[in-house]
Amino acid sequence: MRLITYGNENATKKYTPRRAMMYVPGNDWKKINKISSMGADSFILDCEDGVALNRKDEARSNIQKIFQEKMFSVLKSELSVRINSIESGLCKKDLETILKGPIFPSTLHLPKMETKVQLDWLAQELESLLGKNHNIKLIVFVESARALLDMKELIQHCFTLMDQGAPFNLEAAVFGSDDFCADIGATRTPEAKELIYSRQHFVTCAKAYRLQAIDLVYINFKDMDGLLRQSVEGAQMGFTGKQVIHPSQIEIVQQAFSPSKEKIQWARELVQSFDQHQQSGKGAFTFHGNMIDMPLLLQARNILKMADRLDQN
Amino acid sequence: MRLITYGNENATKKYTPRRAMMYVPGNDWKKINKISSMGADSFILDCEDGVALNRKDEARSNIQKIFQEKMFSVLKSELSVRINSIESGLCKKDLETILKGPIFPSTLHLPKMETKVQLDWLAQELESLLGKNHNIKLIVFVESARALLDMKELIQHCFTLMDQGAPFNLEAAVFGSDDFCADIGATRTPEAKELIYSRQHFVTCAKAYRLQAIDLVYINFKDMDGLLRQSVEGAQMGFTGKQVIHPSQIEIVQQAFSPSKEKIQWARELVQSFDQHQQSGKGAFTFHGNMIDMPLLLQARNILKMADRLDQN
Amino acid sequence: MRLITYGNENATKKYTPRRAMMYVPGNDWKKINKISSMGADSFILDCEDGVALNRKDEARSNIQKIFQEKMFSVLKSELSVRINSIESGLCKKDLETILKGPIFPSTLHLPKMETKVQLDWLAQELESLLGKNHNIKLIVFVESARALLDMKELIQHCFTLMDQGAPFNLEAAVFGSDDFCADIGATRTPEAKELIYSRQHFVTCAKAYRLQAIDLVYINFKDMDGLLRQSVEGAQMGFTGKQVIHPSQIEIVQQAFSPSKEKIQWARELVQSFDQHQQSGKGAFTFHGNMIDMPLLLQARNILKMADRLDQN
């Protein structure tokens, strides 16, 4: 049996589906109030690109209030926060406001990850604000040529910090295609041929560490055929979800990133077979005559968790 | 003259064409007995994925017997063995059975190469079984996100071990696309757009070390047009061969990966010109006014060796 | 404000457009005499592949003479020199002849960059010929599997040498696709699908270090539609220019790599806004509500410099 464990992947930890991820500016109550009526898997209250510089304070205190007052306590979707990039100099204040507690978001999005030093800083900042016992979920953004080239080393460094007790748990990586294109001087086209290398290198790095991989935004939100085509393509490449910028994109994206009935059936049988094998306790684990490794078992479990989650909605 | 030598490439060593590589389960006599009537360049007696867990012992002893009894001694094709992955825990017994001699295969296929530690283990195991004087041909499989990302370092480590006397000679790398797709959660499509990055990164790593690069399996073995299209595409990308899963695929694949008459003519003239230059012994070597480097000369020789080999059949 | 500086990028240094780069053999006066009548952004007097081995001396002394006699002193285009690769053994004599001064080219092209040791050698050679005070512009070629895999480290090493006082300034990287294809055994096709990975990895490495990225040659110089298609595609991928092999290719290529009116307008407003902000001297710099980082400002300035340069012609 092949048993590879990179980082602290844990077959029993809760799986959070993030097929459709939607950003909502933290200072825009009109949009915030619509969250309850939309069905994205994950909403991100934004302090970063969606918020003008002179509205940052407002966004921070809104977000803090939203969590303290449990405004979305019955929401089935994940509700998280995107802080400003560490190099912006705005991030420290974001963290201090949003995490002053006692209630705070379970997931943070870190845009524009670039260097190990940034990650060290984040680990220290979170430890001083939360203490070592917390374990906030972390989602990192790759948005530049440099970050893409260094992606393996940067993710590896996150896991090294986690092994050393950093109070976060890296769960996903997001491909920030617009900033990436600006950074390399590329022009977005509908077919996105200019992004084949970057998207596929991104997926390979994310999956090597068993992270969720979130694909680029489809900018033309009136073109549903194009959105469907790009969503299906992303799922075929190995992405697990996609950023959306308009409510009308949510359903198409979620459909494209949902496991098929056949895949759910395969996963159910594999997990049942593994559980029986665990009880009998002998030798390597095989399924339909093939040996099954831990990553594949984890993948099967994630499919079932996502299927369960979809049933609940 | 540009003279780059990575690893121990040797312009005079024998070239083994591996345009079409076919796996035959080591426990399936019906298929084994057909080997003589098929014309693949390379047959691999399989202990790994093609053999169920409770048939491993049978496969091992069959394979050992096949070599001891010289059952395929007149076969023009290469006959080699795929052992189980090192992390499976089954590999040691494979090696002990198959290499107990006095006659054993000249080529081993190592699936699911993942770490340097695995390669260290293999080098030690082979040395303890064969001694330092043997030099078994080694073919490694890249089948996961991690292995693809680390491919350059892993191949480099093979050459480091070879420099230190490890009793193998790395000749080729195989892209294990099905396990790779499962590993990153990708879905195979007929056009294989989802694999452009992985196939081309794979070829680049293999060729940087002057290894043969073996392309993915074309799964739908009834679709000959699709097989031809993908084979030609693979050859254009720089692959030197392709895995086949059905006898009907062999001829199409071999055609696609054979050098053209023009290329053979070019290679013949280049090698002749080099030999003349060696005798006259002056200055840098040029051909049609261009300087020729060692890798290109090696490539020309390999084309001629493959052409010679094809003439013999 | 995000402020990333890789290497010694300098927002105020002069920008040299290199949309169309054309090689002219240093021993071919017929072609050299046509330079004045052609409008490529950059002409390269070639000592390397365009010159047969027994004509190298002639090319060197021609080139030296061209600069000493200021033969092209009124030329608006850049006039530079491609030396032979370091591993050819011919490079030292190239440098000694061409740089013996007092007037010499402002830009050198280094083909077949492969190793850090080569770059160390070049830095020392230039220092001994020019002294530390000179700062010749350097353009490097990536032309092999190995160089592509090591591209990030090799460029990083250039910047390390520059930080240590090496008398060159790395400005651009050129993708030498023909040698690259020969090196990996690939076959060029009109659509160039076989080069998607290599071109896009190349662009990402170049842009991570804010270098100009020069795309492959379009070989069939009679196919203007194909040239236009590939030029536009290259610009979309992030390339800033393209090698040309025939005068008829120049205009199409320059059109494809020129900034659009919209982009020039955007750049002009951004730079104006930044200059005003510098005078008022407060806080982070925003434009249309978004924070602007240094690379983006540099990109805007380069667009304006290119636009100015185009106006002059």
TrEMBL record, chains A, B, C:
Reactions catalysed, as given in the entry: (3S)-citramalyl-CoA = pyruvate + acetyl-CoA; glyoxylate + acetyl-CoA + H2O = (S)-malate + CoA + H(+); propanoyl-CoA + glyoxylate + H2O = 3-methylmalate + CoA + H(+)
Domain of life: Eukaryota
GO cellular component, one term: mitochondrion
A family per Pfam: HpcH_HpaI
Main localization category: mitochondrion
One BP annotation, GO: regulation of cobalamin metabolic process
Obligatory cofactor(s): Mg(2+)
Binding residues annotated for Mg(2+), in chain numbering: E143, D179
Keywords: Acetylation, Hydrolase, Lyase, Magnesium, Metal-binding, Mitochondrion, Transferase, Transit peptide
GO molecular function term, any single one: metal ion binding
Keyword Transmembrane helix: no
Residues that, per the record, bind substrate: R82, E143
Subcellular compartments: Mitochondrion
Function, as annotated: Mitochondrial citramalyl-CoA lyase indirectly involved in the vitamin B12 metabolism. Converts citramalyl-CoA into acetyl-CoA and pyruvate in the C5-dicarboxylate catabolism pathway. The C5-dicarboxylate catabolism pathway is required to detoxify itaconate, a vitamin B12-poisoning metabolite. Also acts as a malate synthase in vitro, converting glyoxylate and acetyl-CoA to malate. Also displays malyl-CoA thioesterase activity. Also acts as a beta-methylmalate synthase in vitro, by mediating conversion of glyoxylate and propionyl-CoA to beta-methylmalate.
Family under the similarity heading: Belongs to the HpcH/HpaI aldolase family. Citrate lyase beta subunit-like subfamily.
Protein name, per record: Citramalyl-CoA lyase, mitochondrial
Organism whose genome encodes this protein: Daphnia magna
